[in-house]
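Q: what sequence does this backbone want?
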């Protein structure tokens, strides 16, 4: 059976060169960077410092601006809560977009309970946030604007440079969640006017369990984990040295090879996009047609349930994502969340005929044969789902009756 992983937006395989860089720090170099008096500790300090340089290089930041975390979720929490709490005296208002990941949206909940106000800026039908809407949402008491760099579910790249400029002009901190984009498309924290940038190693061929928040010089945050004084006092706890070393290596590889990957993924993505467009009827692409992540193809098909499409694809050895991978497993939320993710709702997909989307996200190792395999099985899967769908059959009847 085929074994086609087209779900690189959820995670990427570890690059063998990254594993090689990490191995000594999983075996003979086991020092704790806080024990910097002895040789093992010093080796760990040097390794973490070297990784800081590489990660900073990926986004045009300075090494001392990198705070290593356990991943994107922690980095987003530190950015949102840390900025709000440290600036609470200036004001208690935040601006975010409605298409942010839950690690941003849900980090706002405890702040709301403590009297912070949040303005949620809408996205258009392509998932794009209008910088003018951000401008209008900023108030004298606004302390932070958070708009993601790229959306994992629909692939849209947001106009962060313009949004950053607006936030800078109004002296409001700007955070951008670059989890889905870092290592895949260029991002320069300075050009984007970003004071805070979230990064995640496992999204660019690094290890899981390591991420970073870029905290630009001069920006103060309230630490969210109390304890020792690691990571400039922002993140207590012994560093994940092997993970950090892996993130550093992955960042260097991405800086060097990103352009080549984007060309490869751009061509394969085009082939997949054109292929599904010509072979599957009633298909609607999601996200921006051009300002999107390379190798990211997302769509929904009328009357074909996203989760079922996913299941049938997996029977054919194809692994993809449906809706938002992170939203289909929510506790305590209304049922609608299970079928239409907040992102799909935000871009206005009609919930009566759209019951979930498909996201194919290709990786640097993806091939044309894999794309062709997907194109050979997808139309048959869709037909089968339609045959099983009473609503689709009703719709067909109506068409035949001329209604
Ligand atoms: N931000 C974005 C944009 C994401 O897509 C995700 C999910 N990969 C996260 C944050 C959270 O990442 P993680 O679960 O790795 O912490």
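A:
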């Amino acid at each position: 059976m085929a074994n086609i992983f087209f779900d690189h937006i959820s995670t990427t395989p570890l690059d063998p060169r990254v594993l090689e860089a990490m191995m000594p720090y999983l075996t003979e170099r086991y020092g704790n960077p806080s024990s910097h008096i002895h040789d093992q500790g010093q080796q760990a300090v040097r390794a973490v410092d070297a990784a800081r340089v590489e990660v900073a290089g990926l986004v045009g930041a300075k090494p001392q601006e990198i705070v290593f975390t356990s991943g994107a979720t922690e980095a987003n929490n530190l950015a949102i809560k840390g900025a709000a709490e440290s600036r609470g005296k200036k004001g208690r208002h935040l601006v975010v977009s409605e298409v942010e990941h839950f690690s941003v949206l849900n980090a706002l909940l405890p702040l709301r309970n403590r009297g912070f106000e949040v303005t949620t800026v809408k996205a258009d039908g392509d998932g794009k946030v209008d910088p003018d809407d951000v401008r209008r949402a900023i108030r004298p008491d606004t302390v932070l604007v958070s708009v993601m760099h790229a959306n994992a579910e629909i692939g849209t790249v947001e106009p962060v440079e313009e949004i950053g400029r607006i936030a800078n002009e109004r002296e409001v901190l700007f955070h951008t969640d670059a989890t889905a984009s870092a290592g895949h498309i260029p991002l320069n924290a300075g050009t984007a006017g970003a004071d805070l940038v979230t990064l995640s190693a496992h999204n660019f061929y690094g290890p899981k369990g390591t991420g970073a928040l870029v905290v630009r010089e001069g920006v103060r945050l309230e630490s969210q984990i109390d304890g020792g004084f690691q990571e400039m006092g922002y993140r207590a706890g012994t560093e994940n040295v092997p993970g950090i070393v892996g993130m550093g290596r992955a960042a260097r590889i991405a800086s060097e090879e990103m352009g080549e990957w984007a060309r490869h993924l751009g061509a394969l993505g085009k082939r997949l996009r054109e292929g599904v467009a010509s072979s599957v009827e009633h298909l609607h692409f999601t996200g921006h047609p051009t300002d999107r992540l390379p190798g990211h193809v997302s769509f929904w098909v009328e009357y074909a349930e996203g989760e079922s499409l996913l299941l049938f694809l997996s029977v054919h050895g194809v692994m993809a994502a449906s809706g938002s991978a992170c939203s289909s497993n929510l506790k305590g939320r209304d049922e609608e969340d299970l079928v239409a993710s907040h992102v799909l709702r935000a871009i206005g997909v009609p919930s009566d005929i759209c019951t979930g989307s498909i996201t194919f996200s290709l990786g640097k190792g993806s091939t044309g044969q894999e794309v062709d395999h997907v194109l050979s099985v997808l139309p048959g899967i869709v037909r089968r789902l339609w045959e099983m769908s009473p609503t689709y059959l009703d719709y067909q009847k109506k068409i035949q009756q001329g209604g």
